[in-house]
């Protein structure tokens, strides 16, 4: 009973964290404020991540990827989000967009689309939400109609992360309107397909460096072999995908919260009032203690969920993944919102200005409570899947 690494990441995971943190601080952090201020895509981050094979670490080795496990993917996203939440959506959304292909796609689809993703030649986005189908994703209106050896897609997808930058899009569309969720199928659409266009970038509260746009599908004609899995299985694939990828949103929330806590901790040791550092005051110490406690609880839950995600991926049964994925996402994002808000408070008036990074972190944290299923929906999911 001496080997007790039960609740500790492996040495390899710790080494990965050190490497990603060093890279993020050197190559991504210097541009984070500018990316937010100018609402521009963080190209420097993409270049640095691709150069170090960190842009899509989840892709299996058999398709040219790193074959990183779910916890390693979480650590990459967490460490990038610690300095720039917008940049962390590069590895996170690459996993979200491509996981349906990994879970349900044919061998031909996997070879065709995962190899360029692994090389850094393309990014992958996920098209589920629509103007009238957000939490009620099964109420989507985008249609796909069979035409010989092709499918013709028409519709609008909304809130699509990295739209216009990504080359590939996993698109959910209705193939049999009578069957509701069992009449939804999944397809790979390419940016270059005739009929694909994009709306103007949304003007957002946070994650301003990650473009969010509508995707318009106007008689987009694609080969039938671009369907992911069998007809009618798209919604099931979408939900299975979210079981795994909600954990990556928890990871993003962890990173944002860690960045805020680290900054606030340093600030209260330097800032003096009444003749001593404000970190010496018990009221401030209690705030920091609560922030650190919430963050560590969120991290343990997220890492436990990542371990379950990996075991499920390796064929180890359901592992209560639906509950744990929802719980990790919900708890970590709520914690991130609380921690970043408290971090702003600890800096007082300075925290409220753009001269310091905490107001950006607070704005960025908010979306983690909303996307990939609002936290209200996560609580419904958890209640329906109590372990």
UniProtKB/TrEMBL annotation:
Domain Acyl-CoA dehydrogenase/oxidase N-terminal per the UniProt entry, residue ranges: 10-121
InterPro entries: Acyl-CoA_DH_CS, Acyl-CoA_Oxase/DH_mid-dom, Acyl-CoA_Oxase/DH_mid-dom_sf, AcylCo_DH-like_C, AcylCo_DH/oxidase_C, AcylCoA_DH/ox_N, AcylCoA_DH/ox_N_sf, AcylCoA_DH/oxidase_NM_dom_sf
Co-factor requirement: FAD
The Acyl-CoA oxidase/dehydrogenase middle domain, residue ranges: 126-220
All copies of domain Acyl-CoA dehydrogenase/oxidase C-terminal, residue ranges: 232-386
Record PROSITE patterns: ACYL_COA_DH_1, ACYL_COA_DH_2
Keywords assigned by UniProt, alphabetized: FAD, Flavoprotein, Oxidoreductase
Family matches, as Pfam families: Acyl-CoA_dh_1 (PF00441), Acyl-CoA_dh_M (PF02770), Acyl-CoA_dh_N (PF02771)
CDD domains reported for this sequence: SCAD_SBCAD
Protein family (similarity comment): Belongs to the acyl-CoA dehydrogenase family.
Record protein name field: Acyl-CoA dehydrogenase
């Amino acid at each position: 009973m001496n080997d007790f690494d039960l609740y500790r990441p492996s040495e390899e995971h710790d080494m990965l964290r050190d490497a990603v943190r060093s890279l993020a601080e050197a190559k991504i952090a210097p541009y984070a404020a500018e990316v937010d201020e100018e609402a521009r895509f963080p190209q420097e981050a993409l270049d640095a991540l691709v150069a170090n094979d960190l842009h899509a670490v989840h892709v299996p080795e058999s398709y040219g990827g790193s074959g990183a496990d779910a916890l390693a993917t979480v650590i990459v996203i967490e460490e990038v989000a610690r300095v720039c939440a917008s940049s962390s959506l590069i590895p996170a959304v690459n996993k979200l967009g491509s996981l349906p292909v990994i879970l349900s796609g044919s061998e031909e689809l996997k070879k065709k689309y995962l190899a360029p993703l692994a090389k850094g030649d393309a990014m992958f986005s996920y098209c589920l939400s629509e103007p009238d189908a957000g939490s009620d994703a099964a109420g989507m209106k985008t249609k796909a109609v069979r035409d010989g050896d092709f499918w013709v897609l028409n519709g609008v997808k909304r809130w699509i992360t990295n739209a216009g930058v990504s080359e590939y899009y996993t698109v959910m569309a209705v193939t049999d309107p009578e069957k509701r969720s069992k009449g939804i199928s999944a397809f790979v659409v390419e940016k270059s397909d005739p009929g694909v266009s994009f709306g103007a970038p949304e003007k957002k509260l946070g994650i301003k460096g990650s473009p969010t746009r509508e995707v318009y599908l106007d008689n987009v004609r694609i080969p039938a072999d671009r369907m992911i899995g069998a007809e009618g299985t798209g919604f099931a694939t979408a939900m299975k995908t979210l079981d795994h990828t909600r954990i990556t949103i928890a990871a993003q929330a962890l990173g944002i919260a860690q960045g805020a806590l680290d900054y606030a901790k340093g600030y209260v040791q330097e800032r003096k009032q009444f003749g001593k550092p404000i970190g010496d005051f018990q009221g401030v110490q209690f705030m920091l203690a609560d922030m650190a406690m919430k963050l560590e609880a969120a991290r343990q839950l997220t890492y436990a969920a990542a371990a379950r995600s990996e075991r499920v991926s390796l064929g180890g049964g359901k592992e209560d993944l639906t509950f744990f994925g929802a719980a990790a996402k919900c708890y970590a994002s709520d914690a991130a919102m609380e921690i970043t808000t408290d971090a702003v408070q600890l800096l007082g008036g300075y925290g409220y200005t753009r001269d310091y990074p905490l107001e950006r972190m607070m704005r960025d944290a908010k979306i983690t409570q909303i996307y990939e299923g609002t936290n209200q929906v996560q609580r419904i999911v958890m209640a329906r899947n109590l372990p």
